[in-house]
Write a structure and sequence with these properties.
It contains 13 helices and nine strands. The protein is of the alpha/beta class.
């Protein structure tokens, strides 16, 4: 039976939520232990919920605090990082990579499903990447937020260049047609776009040269080609375009096929499936874990409700306990309050 369906069936046999939480916890820890037994390397897990489409699921500066915890006490010689992420800040990614490189001599990234955008950049800082037919990376062309929407930096650059070319060829008579378009953006946006594109390419080129292609006489040349390829929006056309294992190899990225180690592939996929179920059934937006048992999560931020200024119903001492409970329950029902015991630590 397929792994995901099998896990769902096992969970559905447990009617009590507490038992389901215990099952997920036990299964998750066991899979990480089994992965370490196969690879003989410590394991880090960095897993985001892509379904909730919440900005907190992206790579941000906040991740540093949790990474600082999960890297402690692990073997400096090498680590496997299992990653599932939509990407995020290139600068935050650089900071996390610097931290990882300070702690480990060899880093291998395992991509069970997706590592997109800045997560692709992070993966390319590794000495080795493990993927299979389920895995995908993505283009690294930067996206600029304008009026609440993300726009490919390259399209803005191209738009300015096209306008400049047309005005130069047709003369100032055509300028009124372009003024409404140009007035939408400040001129400094163009420089921001160019800097963002340059940063993405330079980071990836630097990491590939230092780590993946270390010792290769053509390391800089190969790294430059890969970085420019992945940052080329004109080639990929969409920032969400999937880059599977075969295409990654064609580009020149050194990728090892997980299918060549089926026991490891099976354990990694089982871990991925149980983590996806965990995030589906909880407010967790991101989790961090290591093979030493350190486990941290971040929940979706929420705004706490406050009771209106109306006083709670007064229950004199002579009233029975059940009336007092009923009064409190009435307030809870009225204002949507419930006292719950969260099964996971809110970090």
């Amino acid at each position: 039976m397929p792994t995901f369906q099998r896990l769902l069936d096992e969970l559905n046999k447990l009617p009590q939520p507490e038992k389901q939480v215990e099952y997920i916890d036990s299964f998750r820890k066991q899979k990480i232990k089994e992965i370490k037994e196969i690879t003989k390397r410590d394991v880090l897990v960095y897993f985001s919920d892509l379904k909730k489409n919440h900005p907190a699921g992206a790579i941000t500066w906040d991740d540093k605090t949790c990474f600082a915890d999960i890297v402690e006490g692990l073997d400096k010689n090498g680590v496997d990082v299992i990653i599932h992420s939509p990407g995020g800040s290139a600068e935050a990614t650089q900071s996390i990579v610097c931290m990882l490189r300070e702690h480990f001599d060899n880093i291998r990234f395992i991509v069970p499903n997706m590592a997109k955008s800045a997560a692709t950049m992070m993966v390319l800082s590794g000495d080795e990447i493990l993927m299979d037919d389920r895995s995908e990376l993505g283009p690294i062309d930067p996206q600029i937020q304008i009026n609440g929407n993300f726009v490919p930096a390259q399209t803005l650059i191209d738009g300015f260049e096209e306008a400049k070319k047309v005005i130069s060829e047709a003369g100032t008579d055509i300028l009124p047609a372009y003024l409404p378009l140009l007035n939408k953006y400040d001129l400094h946006i163009l420089q921001i776009c160019e800097n963002a594109k340059k940063l993405s390419e330079e980071l990836v080129k630097d990491w590939l040269t230092k780590y993946m292609f270390k010792g290769d006489a053509k390391a800089a040349e190969k790294a430059d080609g890969i970085a420019k390829n992945l940052a080329d929006h004109k080639k990929w056309l969409s920032h969400g375009r999937p880059i599977g294992i075969n295409e990654a190899k064609t580009i020149g990225i050194k990728v090892s096929d997980l299918r060549e180690n089926m026991p490891l592939r099976e354990k990694v996929w089982e871990l991925y499936c149980v983590l996806e179920i965990l995030l589906d059934r909880s407010p967790i937006i991101k989790l961090y874990e290591n093979s030493n048992g350190v486990f941290l999560v971040k929940n979706i931020p929420f705004q706490q409700k406050f009771l209106p200024p109306n006083p709670l119903p007064f229950c004199p001492p002579e009233r029975s306990v059940w009336r007092a409970k009923r009064a409190v329950s009435s307030v809870q029902n009225r204002f949507g309050f419930r006292q719950t015991n969260a099964p996971y630590r809110i970090y």
